[in-house]
């Protein structure tokens, strides 16, 4: 009983922390404040799959979907999957079901996510129109 209560408190803490980060990102523009920069970009000069995602999430919080997609298209396209995972996780948590029953714990989905992420990283660093279109602006 005490262990289950600690688990619920942990999830409430995670939810509170997530809401706190959302408030932080809503109020502070990552382009203007000293948020951490991408170490991969600093070391290699290449864009990683996450480059531009801080500014993209800030734009999404302000309802600027087009700007967010221009900063990191993969981050914007992954939001429905994250939402499905959050809803499935919350539903399982409330029903007392194990998390591994959720759709996000399927092995094929993990491989798809890895493949799409690697492909996105390669495409956004290619010279030419595709690289320019997918690079953070």
Short recap of the structure:
With 137 residues, the chain is mainly α. The chain is built from eight helices and no strands. It is globular and about 55 Å long.
What letter string, H or E per element, gives the SSE order?
Answer: HHHHHHHH
Number of domains: 1
Taken from the alpha-carbon principal axes, the silhouette is globular
Strand content: under 5%
Q: What proportion of the residues is helical, as a percent range?
A: 55-70%
Which structural category do the helix and sheet elements fall into?
mainly alpha
**Average pLDDT:** 84
**Helix count?**
8
- Rounded to the nearest angstrom, the distance between the terminal CA atoms is 51 Å
Question: Major sheet: size, sense and barrel closure?
Answer: none
Radius of gyration (Å): 18 Å
* Spans of at least 5 consecutive residues with low confidence: none
* DSSP E strands, number: 0
Pfam families: DUF2752
Organism: Hymenobacter lapidarius
InterPro entries: DUF2752 (IPR021215)
Transmembrane segments: 9-28, 69-88, 108-126
Helix and strand arrangement:
Elements: H1 2-27, H2 39-44, H3 53-61, H4 65-71, H5 73-77, H6 79-95, H7 107-124, H8 129-134
Helix pairs in contact: 3-4
Describe this protein's structure.
The protein is mainly alpha-helical. The chain has one domain. It has eight helices and no strands. It is globular.
């Amino acid at each position: 009983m005490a262990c289950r209560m600690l688990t619920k408190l942990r999830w409430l803490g995670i939810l509170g922390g997530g809401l706190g980060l959302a408030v932080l990102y809503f109020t502070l523009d990552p382009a203007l404040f000293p948020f951490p920069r991408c170490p991969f970009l600093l070391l290699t000069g290449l864009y990683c799959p996450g480059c531009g995602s801080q500014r993209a999430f800030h734009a999404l919080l302000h309802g600027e979907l087009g700007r967010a997609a221009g900063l990191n298209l993969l981050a914007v396209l992954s939001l429905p999957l994250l939402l499905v995972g959050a809803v499935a996780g919350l539903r399982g948590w409330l029903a007392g079901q194990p998390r591994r029953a959720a759709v996000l714990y399927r092995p094929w989905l993990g491989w798809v996510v890895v493949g799409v992420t690697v492909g996105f990283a390669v495409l956004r660093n290619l010279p030419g129109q595709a690289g320019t279109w997918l690079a953070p602006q």
